[in-house]
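Morning run. Coffee first, then this:
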Amino acid sequence: MPIKVRRLVLPMIVLLTVGGCEKAEVEPPVDSIEPTQQVQSDTGDAAVPVSSWDSGAGLVFLVRDPEASSAMVVFPQYADSTLPDTVHFDRSLVRGRIVDVFNRAGFAGQLRVDSMEMTTWAEGCIEWPTAVVSRLDSGLLRESWNTAFIAGRVRAVPLDSMESLSAADSARLVVQLTRMASVIPEASSSSFRGLPFVVRSAHRFTAAPGVQAVVSDIVRKVNLEANPLEEHTVLIAERAAGNEKGGGPWKTVYTERAAGVEERIETTDLLAAIRFGGGQAGESEGTGAGERTGLLVVRVGDETTGYSLIERTRPGEWKVRWTSVRTGCG
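And here it is:
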């Protein structure tokens, strides 16, 4: 899954976000920008402004750079409206810290942050600082993790990919997902109307005690020779836990849809599922008091890269809680 630093030019896409299950009308896009809060940093420094990001998950997190031996340090308090001359990256938040690392399978081990290289934002060029990390566990491979949080801040939620299921179970899940995608409201003028859905990826996980969930990326294409179009639907569904035949029916609880020119469309890839708000690091089969479940995703466009946290706010409801600055240079 390539994660590239791109120029800061937004791709021309249509983005539709719907929170809720199979409603008659399409709801407006979720507004992930909430009023700025003030929170204390882990080191007792002066209050740091944080946007809609939950400071309980830490004031920074790391994303592995697939093209280098370093990691990008994301400071979630900064939004796209942040002026370059107001940005300040506090090395003390990460330098020397132990971080818990995660991938789609869950908790993968720990790393130490040895140093952080500062960056300066300027108009037209936004990049996250990079950190040099070292392994605490010799068994942890450099390519075996996607994201990392300050130790003890969040808990990992293991994800089971569609490929790990039996052929029969995988086929059954594909049928169920495409059926749910087909009833999502769309404009009668849509170029994709009536075209078949293809499940690009699907991962099952425990959303809450007794609740199984699945998150998937479902694709449709218009094969125009000169200008091929592509549509991606991110769909989250829930049902009462049980075996494949004994579980309750799936219910759509969140969708978002992006469409545009195939080479420029923004795609959403899943980095990890996490729980935060209480408990200790490591894999979790249930939720403790005050804990919430979220999906950390990366948005990769033609010219930009960004991150979002999609959170389960209550039973049967997921929303985009937070979205990062779009990075890129040009």
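The CA atoms of residues 215 and 236 lie 4 Å apart. Good start to the day.
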